[in-house]
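Researcher: I'm preparing a figure for a lab meeting and need a structural model of a single chain. I don't have an experimental structure, so a prediction will have to do for now. The sequence is pasted below. Please return the structure as tokens so I can convert it later.
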Amino acid sequence: MATALDSPAKLARARGATCGDLAERRLAPHLLAGFGVRWVLPIALLAAPLSASGQALSVDSTEFRRANDDIDPEDTQQTEGDPRRVDEVDGINLNECERSENWHYEVTTSGYSGNTLFVYTGSNCSDQASRDSTGEDCKVIERITLGTNSSELHEIDLGANEIANIDGEDCEALDDNLRVWFLVLSAEGDETPIASASSPTASDIRVLTVPPAAPSNLTTGAGESRAEVDWEGAVEGEHYYVACSPQPGAQVSPSATEPTADAEGQEVCSGAAPTTGFEAGATFDRRWRCDQPSDETLFADGLAAQSATVDGLENEAQYHFAAVAVDDVGNPSVLSEIACATPRPVEDFFEAYRRAGGRGGGGICGVTPGARAPDGAAAAIVLGLAALLSRRRR
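Model: Understood. Here is the structure written out token by token.
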């Protein structure tokens, strides 16, 4: 869908902004870069310079954005980015293609009255042979008839599936590098564009809808109210999520049986996970994530390391864990094999002393009035500590 306004000034007034506001918005990325803030300019101008006749075509890189305002907030397969966030041009994954994530461009034209602005997707749509290849290499996804105004601003919204899906098939098994092309032509079959602009390189939009392999060799270890999870990844550079069942902080009951371990010391799961569908090879559900504090968004970036500590667990309750690999455009793997761990209290010296019968109120010289003498086990602990302190004084 595209809309046109006579000029940036009219667009500014329509939005309740001033021309000064627009200037600030165009300077903002440069000012932010000066303070070390990461800012990606996804669209580079590859247009002909302003001619004597006043012709120009430009794509405003500062106004590019990706958004998902209309998606279901219960979408459990989305793996990265808040549904309303401004995104970088990092690629299109399977979920973004299937739900048709919105990509917004602002294109300005002047001096091309009577011609047409064509929006193509493909690898090299400036070449007529590619544009004439019946959609296999390039596909028209928007046509805008240019008016007589000296300058027109066109707001163009494209679905991620339109950008990625150049061959007309569904979103499955795509692996390609694409650009979005903006061409001014007098007719669709013209050999040479009057003007053109596009994303800067063919690799700017990586379309990848093939999920990565799941991590392997998952192991766990338990501590007090926590568990350690380790795994091995299949591809260097991918990142990871940890999935849990039940979730940290959930109401759980202590395990009915004492946990056992296999020959390698790994705790054996006593049964199926309490969460429906939580099993090896299952499709990842983002609500299962537990590798970040509960106050962080479920869309937070994954882990670079192949290990994680999960806190906030109930002691004496068994938890099921899995790892998920995520590629550089956000496709998650299925769940890895499942491993279990049962957190337990960790007993310190004073706790062991009191459990053995010691009645001291604290410190090596603490005495509780009316307390009986410690039994043999507690006395042995006290004498051992005293001997250790004596050696340190020497």
